[in-house]
């Protein structure tokens, strides 16, 4: 008996069958690619953390990350500790702190839950770096970064990235000339109050020579993205202040 391929019943069963087949193929593909995706995420995070503390293959003006073939070994070489902090600045070591999802931790805090704060301790050329991840919102979508600090919360390096900012405008937060401006900027006042950094349109220091004004020069045509960078620095890095206060008390 022949099948009537023009009937509604046939069309419905055919559509259901295709949905099942395609869905199964997509699920299989996603499952197969998951290890590779996780590995790529690991390498990217480690590259970003290292970049913030000055471990990279930069030339005079370009940005070159440590290669994927050696990033794991370089991360182990330069990152001496991975810590997870609580709200009081108490730290516990966690060798997979780099896997903590900052976006999810921010959501937990908004819902009244305890937020984990990852912090990476790096050692390079006799100097200790404390690298903290930050995350915020730009004009169109998420922006994020890693900030390297010394024990006095003076910025020693920065890396920023974005999901969908405008090319040539807000997307320039990941340009080296912008990120390099943050080097040497202070986050704390002389009295130890957290001040943060403002990406300021009216900054009277275009060459960024003044390091205690709590400002860096804004990007042309990217006011909202710059405001997002200012906000995430102030909101996220302030959470690390108890740790640095504890650190100072331990060294005094």
What can you see in these coordinates?
- There is one protein chain.
- The chain contains 6 helices and 8 strands, in the order H-H-E-E-H-E-E-E-E-H-E-E-H-H.
- By secondary structure, the chain is of the alpha+beta class.
- It has one domain.
- Helix 1 crosses helix 2.
- The longest helix has 45 residues.
- The mean pLDDT is 89.
Q: Based on helices, strands and strand pairing, what is the structural class? A: alpha+beta
Our Rg estimate from Cα atoms comes to: 23 Å
Number of DSSP helical runs: 6
Q: What overall form do the CA principal axes indicate?
A: globular
Indicate how many domains the architecture comprises: 1
The count of strands amounts to: 8
Order of helices and strands: HHEEHEEEEHEEHH
Runs in which pLDDT lies below 50 for 5 or more consecutive residues are: none
Query: How far from one another are the termini?
Result: 91 Å
State the share of residues found in helices, binned by percent. 25-40%
| Main pleated-sheet profile | 6 strands, antiparallel
Spatial order of the strands in the main sheet? 2-1-3-4-5-6
Arithmetic mean of pLDDT: 89
Beta-strand fraction estimate: 15-25%
Give the structure's gist in a few sentences:
The protein has one domain (46-251). It contains 6 helices and 8 strands, in the order H-H-E-E-H-E-E-E-E-H-E-E-H-H. The chain has helices at residues 8-52, 71-78, 102-110, 176-180, 223-237, 241-251; strands spanning 79-85, 91-93, 117-124, 127-137, 142-149, 155-162, 198-200, 215-217.
